[in-house]
Write a structure and sequence with these properties.
Number of strands: 3
Order of helices and strands: HHHHHHHEEEHHHHHHH
Structural class: mainly alpha
CATH topology of the largest domain: hpI Integrase, Chain A
Strand content: under 5%
Largest sheet: 3 strands, antiparallel
Number of helices: 14
Radius of gyration: 25 Å
CATH class of the largest domain: Mainly Alpha
CATH architecture of the largest domain: Orthogonal Bundle
Helix content: 40-55%
C-alpha cells in the first residue's frame, strides 16, 4: 500500500489547485505560491516537512523571522509585504483545517502586524502631466502607441494590467467609455474616457496598430515592436523612462498617473464614491486616502476660516 504524502509541499499544491478551481487570478496564484514556498523552505531548514508538525509557536517564530529579515539593500520588508506573506499562511492552514488534513489550525490566532495609513507617493501637477505626455516620438508606431497608453492612464486611472489587456471590443467611442474586464478581484467595470485620449487612440488604431500587429485575428490593442503581447512590466519601464526624460523629479510609473487622476478629480469637486467606482476599489476606505492627499479644498477652508489669515502684519516703530 502506497504511503500517504503528508508533506507541506504536497498540500501546498493541492491548496493552489483549489484556488485555481475557485477562479482566483493567475497573479493571485503566483503570489500565494511564492509566499508558501518561502515558508516551506524556512520550515525545511529547521527539519520540518510534514504539515502536522507545524505548531502555533512555529508560526510565531516565522512571523518574527520575516519581521527581522533584511533585503539585499539592508531594508526590512514593508508592513504590507509582511501582511501578505502571513495572509498566505493563514489561508493555507485555514483550508487545511476545513479539509480535515490537520486537527488544529496553528495559524488561527495569528495576529497580523498593524499597517499604517500611508499616503500615496508623489502626485503630478497638470503641467507636469502634459510635460510627460509629449515625450514619446509620435512619428514612430511605438512612440504613438506609448502616447496613447499615457493618455489612457491619465484619463481613466486604470491599472497598468488593465491597459495592457484592453481589446478592440472594450472601447466604445460613441459612448466614450471603456469596459475593463476582470480587473482586480476578477471584477468587470466601466470607466469614462476623455475625448482627447479617444482621439489619440483612434489615430493609433488607424496608423500604428496595423504596423505593430502581426496577425489578422489579434484582438488586443497594444503590441510591442515585434508584434508580441505588451506586458505590464514593459509598460512600467516605458512610463518611468518618459517621466525621467521629461525632467519631472518625481518617482513612480503607472500608479503615479492613477494617483494623479484621482487626486486632481477630487480637487475639482468629484464625489469620492465616483472615484471609487472609476478606480475599481472594493472598499471606500481605500479610496478615501485621496481625501488626505487633496489639499486644495482644505487650503480654501483654511483661508476662509482661520483667524490668523485675516490679520495684517502690524508694523512696529523702532525706538530711536
Amino acid at each position: 500500500m502506497a504511503e500517504i504524502d503528508h508533506s507541506l509541499k504536497f498540500y501546498g499544491e493541492a491548496f493552489l489547485e483549489n484556488l485555481k478551481v475557485q477562479h482566483y487570478s493567475e497573479e493571485s496564484l503566483k503570489i500565494r505560491r511564492f509566499d508558501l514556498n518561502i515558508f516551506f523552505s524556512w520550515c525545511e531548514e529547521r527539519g520540518f516537512t510534514d504539515a502536522d508538525e507545524i505548531t502555533r509557536p512555529m508560526i510565531d517564530r516565522y512571523q518574527r523571522y520575516i519581521f527581522n529579515y533584511r533585503q539585499k539593500n539592508g531594508k526590512a520588508l514593508s508592513i504590507s509585504c509582511q501582511r501578505g506573506r502571513l495572509t498566505s499562511i493563514k489561508l493555507f492552514f485555514k483550508w487545511m483545517a476545513q479539509k480535515y488534513h490537520i486537527l488544529n489550525n496553528p495559524a488561527s490566532e495569528l495576529v497580523m502586524p498593524r499597517e499604517g495609513h500611508k499616503l500615496p507617493g508623489d502626485i503630478l501637477t497638470k503641467d507636469e502631466v502634459e510635460l510627460v505626455l509629449i515625450q514619446p516620438n509620435i512619428d514612430t508606431p511605438t512612440g504613438l502607441r506609448d502616447r496613447v497608453m499615457l493618455e489612457l492612464l491619465y484619463s481613466t486611472g486604470m491599472r497598468r494590467s488593465e491597459v495592457t489587456s484592453l481589446t478592440l471590443v472594450d472601447v466604445d467611442f460613441n459612448r466614450e467609455i471603456i469596459m475593463i474586464r476582470e480587473g482586480k478581484g476578477r471584477k468587470d467595470r466601466v470607466v469614462p474616457v476623455g475625448k482627447r485620449a479617444l482621439s489619440w487612440l483612434q489615430k493609433y488604431l488607424d496608423e500604428a496598430r496595423p504596423v505593430l500587429c502581426k496577425t489578422m485575428d489579434a484582438v488586443h490593442i497594444f503590441f510591442t515592436h515585434d508584434g508580441s503581447f505588451f506586458n505590464k512590466e514593459t509598460l512600467s519601464e516605458n512610463v518611468r523612462k518618459y517621466i525621467i526624460k521629461s525632467g519631472v523629479r518625481k518617482k513612480g510609473s503607472c500608479h503615479l498617473f492613477r494617483h494623479t487622476a484621482a487626486t486632481l478629480m477630487l480637487e475639482n469637486g468629484a464625489d469620492i464614491r465616483f472615484i471609487q467606482q472609476m478606480l475599481g476599489h472594493a472598499s471606500l476606505e481605500t479610496t478615501q486616502v485621496y481625501t488626505r492627499v487633496s489639499i486644495t479644498q482644505l487650503k480654501q477652508v483654511h483661508d476662509l476660516t482661520h483667524p490668523a489669515n485675516h490679520r495684517e502684519i502690524s508694523s512696529q516703530k523702532s525706538e530711536d
